[in-house]
Amino acid sequence: MATSFKFKPLTISILLLFLYNAIASSASGSSSTTMHTNNWAILVCTSRFWFNYRHMANTLSLYRTVKRLGIPDERIILMLADDMACNARNKYPAQVFNNENHLLNLYGDNVEVDYRGYEVTVENFLRILTGRHERAVPRSKRLLSDEGSHILLYMTGHGGDEFLKFQDSEELQSHDLADAVKQMKEKRRFKELLIMVDTCQAATLFSQLQSPGVLAIGSSKKGENSYSHHLDSDVGVSVVDRFTFYTLAFFESLNMYDNASLSSLFTSYNPNTLMSTAYYRTDLYQRRLEEVPVTNFFGSVMETIHTDSPYRAFSNRYYRKSKTEMPSDQSGGGNRRALKDLDILEELADPKLNVRPLQSTYLLVHEG
Amino acid sequence: MHKSSQVQGASSPENRYPEHGTFPTSKSSIFRLKRAAISQRLIKHFDKGNPVKDYSTELGDSRHDLHDIHYLANAIQLCPLFFPWTLGGILVEVGPGPNLCALEERKGKERKGKGARGSSFDANELSVKIEHQMRKIAAKDSTSCGACSYNSSLNKYEDSGEYNDELFDEYLHSLVDESDSRGNGGNVYTMIVVRREGQKDASAVVGKYRHGWIVGRVSEEEAVKKVASVFVKAFVNGGKEEGSISGEFMPVGADGKIVLSFNLLNADPHDWIYDWEFQEIDDNLLAPILKYLKPIADISVESQVLYHTPKSSFSYWDEKLWSYIFTTKDLPFFVNSNEWHLDTSVAAGGRSKILHLVVYVPSATECPLLLQLPNGKISKSNGFISPMWGSVVVWNHAACLNGSKMDTRVRHTISSEDMRKIFEVFIGQLRQLFGLKSKGIFRDTSSGTIRLLTSEMFGIQELDVLSRQHTCFNLLQCTTTLGSLSRLVQSLPRMIIKEEIGEQVRYSLEAAKSALSNVSAGIYDASAVSSRRARSFSEDAFYHPSMMSVSYYSFEHCFAVYSPFFLPVALHVLLAALREWKRYKQESRKFKAWKAKKD
């Protein structure tokens, strides 16, 4: 017999007003609340001419390192002010070495230079940092970071008190750099920034920084010079700088899965072998260096979430529209092992709810 | 620094003061007038080239727009965004009593009651509309007493144990007529509680429109609590654990566009090569997605097929499962960026967002490849997402599973059936990328299990959630961008702000105002669209390439750079001007003396 229903009004309309506030106030503390989503690297070599071979080798060595540790080309911006590999004075054409044993060719496969030659200018560099490009600039030349990005900025070349020389003709001042970083922070273009500078009097270049979330290390303090490591008598010039040489030595022992900390990197520099004091500043950085793995800046670990299940939205819809016949499964015969979606049936515990029989998926599991 | 000085010509002493008393117009005087004209012109040219002049006259109106920015920022931050909506609840009891027609009556009253907001009502408040509805529904059903199809469908449920969620959902949708609910301000969400004695646990189902129902044995107070919690969990938060808006699940680019880049990766073409019929999929499966997400983002679709794209993580052979296994620990290292050249889109502008949706076909050395979850089970979807990057699905084709040989020289096409399955996973992953759940069921400790009907890719209430969140996020981004812009402009008073930037700021402010008004009217779609426009304009204004602070030096810097060029020349010009002035003074003195002598 048909049952009939008694009925009561449950609630009289509840007008609910919801507040969607509060993220505005977190602008200052955002570095602690946003998640680390990706890693970027900006590697800049600012010197031209053959005798500055070592700066090119420095930058290419670091490029190789960050690629090996996982940062993809699309998130690396490589700026090389001159071409050493195909320089007329290069005895080994198309090869760049950072060691006199010539074991490693830095200019081997998959080197993608984004800014080359005369494109490496102070203006372009600041445009990359602030994001103010002309409309036609391609995506590979832009820094497309977001508020969860960790950025590694490595600069090498000739520098001095509060400046870095570009192309032997112009200078990047420390206050320009500080201003660009400030604008980046305001626009939330990074979560954390690590600046590594390998020039003479490197520490003066980041002396004017004020933005939070920035960590900086330079190869020498004010009044000190940074020196090259060794001279390659075959190539005829110095092939690597001391600071970068010891940095690479630290990284050669690491791979993608390791988690050595930043403090171990920073304390690995010995002033006696460097012949200068590697100075770093952590006053703008909230986290403790012992807790920060180097792969946070030098490598890249993607954040991943696995997908629970497919979303069966259009079993009927697709067939109606496309008017194709249901194709038979390509696997024939006897040894077919199939998985029925037992898990979904378990979750829907209500016995009265009859779920439509789900088609077998393309995942096959051995029926044990 | 310099003002152009007028130097009057003066005639030579000899024939300067002739008897007829007029000022000389002889050749020498013409020469002197010329001299004055030349010196005047020279000084004017010098003055024009002077870089230290004040440029304040060139700034124009652009700076004035920036005052409005502060007003908007305050509007958003001090007065938070209020989204008006209405929740209604209906309790249905299964038991002897008046027949179902009463249900319609009371439903109608309930609806009216929403407008009246809490006043009590009685049976006389039936509107013509409800009667019309009752008649319509009664006509459909064959049983007596004007019973509605609800009755009959629930009867069917009783008898055969079969229950069709979809039909019930459609039926409820026809009852709860939403077209006239907008007048009340905001959208109306309805929860219906069906009390039945036989049931042990209460389970909730949320339909694809703006209503849901709970079936089970609950007391009235419990029902209220359950309704509220299901409402918050499903309608307000859209299934997320917390209601906060993190930028991690907002994959919309700064110009309001998303590019969905579909990639088919053949890990080793020496084993087999696969291709797909993308056009068919684009027309059938992707067109609805674009339609649904239109207010939230402008989506365009691209696809490519790549070869020689091995993954960079390792997998091991599992004897029990008879396949190669990779675990969730390997997922962060799966994407091999050296070999996978995914970001080759030419259509995506500098500020659009690209989401890479990848189908990975493993090579013969690791086929079949399955994802094992931490609890030991095999993943049903065989895929994963990376927020703000995209997603990957591993597809094992049937031939590799039963070990049959494949012709390696032929390009095989993925069958429609397999494509459909892959795209079901993609839909789930796309939902995850937007922050919704990928499957149609989620657990909540307070309200038990909540099941979503999954016949559409996005339920309307889910689109509401997305619209609201994106509106808030976009408006917030817009205000922070405009605020940064105004701070930047104020810190560099000598920077030239182009008219274009001022216009963009104005458009952005207009769009933001219209978004705010749409929010208070409760129109979610329009508010999402205008907030997107507001953000896009504000980003265009902030990232205008002309605002490079390196071009605008401080006054001291300018002075220090230019003074070695201009000071020496300036010295000479100054001296010359002084000499001319002295000469004029001398001559005019002489003229006065002559005039006095004459009188």
Automatic annotation (TrEMBL), chain A:
Pathway(s): Glycolipid biosynthesis; glycosylphosphatidylinositol-anchor biosynthesis
Gene Ontology cellular-component terms listed: GPI-anchor transamidase complex
InterPro entries: GPI_transamidase, Peptidase_C13
First and last residue of the signal peptide: 1-24
Active site, renumbered: H158, C200 (nucleophile)
GO BP terms, alphabetized: attachment of GPI anchor to protein; GPI anchor biosynthetic process; proteolysis
UniProt keyword annotations, A-Z: GPI-anchor biosynthesis, Signal
Official protein name in the record: Phosphatidylinositol glycan, class K
The organism of origin for this protein: Salvia splendens
TrEMBL record, chain B:
Residue ranges the record marks as coiled coil: none
Primary location group: endoplasmic reticulum
Region (Disordered): 1-24
Residue spans crossing the bilayer: 559-578
Keywords: Endoplasmic reticulum, Glycoprotein, GPI-anchor biosynthesis, Membrane, Transmembrane, Transmembrane helix
Bilayer disposition of the protein: Multi-pass membrane protein
Domain of life: Eukaryota
Biased composition (Polar residues): 1-14
Pathway info: Glycolipid biosynthesis; glycosylphosphatidylinositol-anchor biosynthesis
Keyword Transmembrane among record annotations: yes
One GO cellular component term: GPI-anchor transamidase complex
Any one GO biological process: attachment of GPI anchor to protein
Location of this chain's protein in the cell: Endoplasmic reticulum membrane
Entry's family note: Belongs to the PIGS family.
Identification of the protein by name: Phosphatidylinositol glycan, class S
Native source species: Salvia splendens
